[in-house]
Design a protein that fits this description.
Layout: E1 3-8, H1 20-33, E2 35-39, H2 51-55, H3 57-74, E3 80-82, H4 85-100, H5 102-114, E4 125-127, H6 128-136, H7 138-143, E5 153-156, H8 178-185, E6 189-190, H9 210-226, E7 231-234, H10 237-245, H11 247-254, E8 262-264, H12 265-272, H13 290-296
Parallel strand pairs: 1-2, 1-3, 3-4, 5-6, 5-7, 7-8
Helix pairs in contact: 1-12, 3-4, 3-5, 4-5
Amino acid sequence: MSKEYSFYPGCSSQKGASSSNYLTSVGTMCDALDIKLNTIPDWNCCSASIGYSGGGELPRMALSARNIALSEQNNPGQEIVATCAACWLATRETAERLHEDPEMKAEADIALKEAGLELKNETKIRHMVEVLIDDIGYDKMAEKVVKPLEGLKIAGYIGCQTNRPFGIDGESFENPKYLDKLVDTLGAESIPEYEKKVSCCGGALAFSEPEKSQALVKGILESAYDHGADMIVTPCPVCQMNVEVYQDQINATYGTKFNIPVTYYSTLMAVAYGGSAKEASLDGQIIRAKKLEEIAAK
């Protein structure tokens, strides 16, 4: 029987957006694991960016509250699952804040009433990796592997938002191990000693102060390179984009020669579960993951 969840894809993962390849690979992964994602109808942006930079607290909370209310109305009884770290963080923060702050909840209710919605706020907000770890489990994930990712050495880069302030239950904030375990489960070689797995990629500074962001990304790449990583894997769209797309600029600035593919965990899983390069959305990579493409082609 399929496990069903109310799905919040978020702006960056929708078709044609910067992380649309994430959504494609998640779909392939979920098909293999018999997970059914029911997209929240008419979902809106969680305001993870503009909401913190001047949009105001109540509008920010009201936007995420609208998504929760829409989920409760259209997918009743189903936990909300997000793949984007920022979307998960913003939605979960809203749910907890509105539980703890009756005045804010009352103001959000007024805004939602104008849209014909009512917020019960009884829905659990989860990241997709929580579903994989807690509801599916490593043993079940291993059973589905038909193309082991043998010969690949992969650095697990978690970043900030999937790690703090909430993190994944049962995992250390300083040294979370679930990506390492997942990499090993899929037949590849993890790098548990990778020092930069929870370091910031400077996503918030990528446009305003790119030199600072790129200095942070350089450290993330350097550590992966020093440990002999063939590629980097992450659960975060901002981390994936920053660490992949700025390698040319970092090389030009620092005289380095980085050319390390950066993929999502779902990309690895899609290939390991027998998906083609297209089904794993490897065609969406800026830096081609050639070794992964070779496994997908077997």
